Each structure stands twice: as structure tokens, then as C-alpha cells.
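Table S7 (text form). Paired inputs.
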Amino acid sequence: MPMSCLGYRLAVATFAILFALPASAQLAPPSAKPAVPKTTAPKTNAPKTTAPKATALSPRAASCHNGASFDRFLADVKQQAVAAGVSQRTIAEASPYLVYDQGIVNRDRGQRVFGQLFTEFAGRMAAPYRMQNGQQHIKTHAAAFARAEKEYGVPPAVIAAFWGLESDFGVNMGNLPTLKSLVSLAYDCRRSEMFVGETIAALKIIDRGDLHPDEMIGSWAGELGQTQFLPVHYVNYAVDYDGDGRRDLLRSEDDVIGSTANYIANGLKWRRGEPWLEEIKVPSSLPWDQTDLTVQQPRSKWAQLGVTYPDGRPLPSDNLAGSVLLPMGRFGPAFMAYPNFAAYTEWNNSLIYSTTAGYLASRIAGAAPMRKPSQPVAQLPFNELKQLQQLLVQAGFNVGKVDGVLGQQSRAAVKAMQIKFGLPADSWPTAELLARMRGGTAQAQPAGTVR
């Protein structure tokens, strides 16, 4: 799960970064269409690595540990692990892999979050080949998917969409030693407490016999398996679905399916039998300030306001709550996000990722492709987004970091200023809003458009 690269999932329950792309290599779209994974029996031999060597320490790394060296810090982590029930045997077995790597820390600190239009991201990540691959995996592993839906209430398409996005069904799980990544990030001061907990959880995975230290290979942020579980989630939600006595999320497709369903149902509080995301068509008269994930109305109310399905069919006149989601403003795609969509934003709080995951799941389940915008949707370039944030700060808004990335705080501020200036309050930053805030009369020219 990619959240560890953007901020700890369980500590953030809001709908945060609109344009933040997951930093894990697994989430980057392939430069070419990846090979379709084989659907034969799981491999019998696990991927293995030799024990890594330590690299030079950063002089800044120990500032939050009272100047303690890495060795002293690691000794304390091992003591905490033993107190948490990890055996001395496991500590000894894992010790050669518990080394510091400054390159991992540099990678974490150097994450670049950049803007991208939802239609571009979804066009690559929810491409037809990934939809078809998801449908094929549902057929190939029909028994496990059926069992998971019966036990946990999570539809196969929802599981398959995360499986495809996170690793292309096991093709791209990462290639770095997990223990080295975790302990390096634990020693660094940015998210030390979080990664100490993840390191201890990884040791518990070894201790209960699920994986050996040399099998633990994954992303640079310490995520494991075909749906990229953080070790804490691995410990809490992984299940032995194939009955071999181990919870193996690297090689066992059955374990992947059951464990992912368990996490979605019990960790993310999935609501059995309810939808998650549907494309809709919105009228030009819609009160745009109501188009927000924080605003929920019964479908009957949205229907009264003129919201329909894309083909013009009316929404059901019932009391099922939903929010109108406009990831690119009023001229872009429109979706009805139901309470189950919260599971997506908790899986990854990047709105562009969570909306893509929900859309891909709907496509795997048989929904039609998303309609193209009826007109070009202008996107402010990075430098103008950053200037807009600076102007919002000067106007008294808290937008978080002024970084040219439109997060939820920036979106809320944009909406407030749109209301102030009498503009359609759809939270989408426009050249007109920027010009108004600059105090000029001429509209700034956007750098580009997308059709």
C-alpha cells in the first residue's frame, strides 16, 4: 500500500493531496505495456537477497535520538521488539539485514510530488489492458474471490483493482531489502516512531514463520507483497487463504486475495453490498459549492438538482448518500462518490490515486469507459499554482506547504476565494481566479489544456 510514501495512512483520515502521485516505484506507470502475469501455480522458491552492507551515516540522522549512534538506536529497537514478543532467535536471524542505508533516507526526503491531470493519470493506470487483466485474474482465481466476497463482502473488482495498481498482479513488487529500508527510515527523524513500529512488525512476520528475512523484498518504503502491505497491516490483516500454514503475500495469490479483502473490510470499514464510485453527468446549474467530498446528499436530492448518469438516465430516487466529486472542476469528469469511497482515500490519501482506483474497479466490474471532457480543461502550470498558493497565504488561508501542489487545504482555500469573487466554486484553480487575486484585469494564460 502506497500510503507510507505520502504520510501514514492511519494517521490521516482526510481527503488530502489532490495531485500527489504515489512515490513507490510500483505505482509508476510502466513505460511499456507490462507482460501479463502468468496464472499458473505460485512459485515455490521465494525471491531472496544477500544480507546488505551498511553505508555511511548522515550526520543529521540521530538528532531526534539524543545523539545516539545507529548501533545504540538499533539495540533499543531490538529490546522493544523482544518486549513486544519477538524471539531472540528471530532477532539474531534478522540482524544481518538491519543495517542503515543513507540512500533510502535520501530517497524518502527527496520525494517529488507534482501535478498531473486526473484524465492523464487514469488513462495510463486504468488502461484497458489492466482492466482486462483484472477480469482475467477474477476468472482464474474464481474460488478465492468468491470466498472473499462471501466472508468479507468486498467485490472481486475492488480487490483486483488494487492488485493491478499496486504491482500489476505481482509483476512489480519492488526489489529492495525490506528490513534495511524500514530500519533506515526508523533511524531518520522524519517519521521515526512510525517506522520503528513497522520494523518491529516486520520482525513479527518473521517470528511467526510467514517469511524469512532474505525473502522480504519490496519497495524502498518497506511495503511488502502483491498489494503492498505495510508490515503492521501484514501482521494485522494477512490471512492464510491457501491453507499452507503461512501468510505469504509475495507468492500465494489466494493469500493476497483473502488478505486484501480482510484489510478493506475490517481495516477500511467497507460497507457490504453498497457501491463505491459511479460516473455521473452534472448540469451547468448545479450549485458548485456543494461538489465536495465533505458534502453528502441523498441520491434523490442530487436527482432533483439535475444530476443523472452519463447517458441521461435518472439517478435512483432513494436515500443512499453520495458526494459529487469533480477531480478536475466542473468541466472535467464527474463522479458520485459513496461512503465506500472513503476506503479508497484511506488506502491512499492522494485523490488522483484513490479516484483512479475506484474508477478502475468500476471498469473491471463492467462499467463503461469514462466520458471525455466536453471541452478542454485548462490546468495552471506549476509556477502559477505556487503563486496562487502564496496569494492564498497572504489572504489568510492555511494551504499547508507552498509547493505548487493542490492539496485539500489549497482546494478549500480556492473554493472560498471563488465564492468571494462570485466565481463557480468547484475548487479548481483557474487563470481567472489567479488574475483576480493578482489584482489585475487581464486573465493569465494557462500553459496547456487537455481534451
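Next pair, protein 2 of 2.
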Amino acid sequence: MSLLDQLAEARIQKAQQEGAFDDLPGRGKPIELDDDSIIPEALRAGYRLLKNAGYLPPELQLQREIREVEDLLAQTQEADERSACEKRLHLLRTRLAESGRGTSRLLELGRYHDRLLEKWQGD
């Protein structure tokens, strides 16, 4: 352990003894960390930054809208509504195909794609 590490550890222990950490929010509760184990390590910081800023890449936004329309279509019984959903679905799929990003290598990883969409839908 380097001298700097030893100094930092000594200050942390002193602060603990003085009760500096006693009133922190979430004390005694487990830390909830995002599971980013499926994201390549080199991309994790960038993805977390984008997520925290509320940014959803256009291709993921289109994928999410496609899933929403597919779900709506599966629940719709009336012919007029089904027709409108089918038109919307076709439009969204066309936009995704034209973007050139709809079949990116990262999105082809089904597990990653599904979990990423779930996380953004949950926010």
C-alpha cells in the first residue's frame, strides 16, 4: 500500500470514528448497482453517462417504439385499430432499416439489446 493510500485510509477511519458517515442516505441498505456486465468494458463509462443524461440512441428509441406497437397490435381486436397499428409498425421498421443502424453488431446481441431496452423502459 502506497503512502497516499495509507493517508487516505487513515483519514477515512478517523472520519468513521467521528461519525461523519452515520447520517448518509441509504445507510445500512445494499448498494444498487446497474448490472453492466454484458456491456463491453471499454463502453461502460460512455453508456452510463448517456443513460444518466437521459439519452436513448435513435435506433434503441425506434426498437422500443416497435415493441410497444407490437404489444398494442397483439392486444387490439378491431380491424381499424389493427390496420393503424400495422401501418405504424411498418413505418417504424422502415425508419430503422433506413437508419443503417438497425442491424448494428451491438444490437444483434439479443440479450444485451433486450436488457438495455428493459432498463430504459423502467426509468
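The chain has a mean pLDDT of 79.
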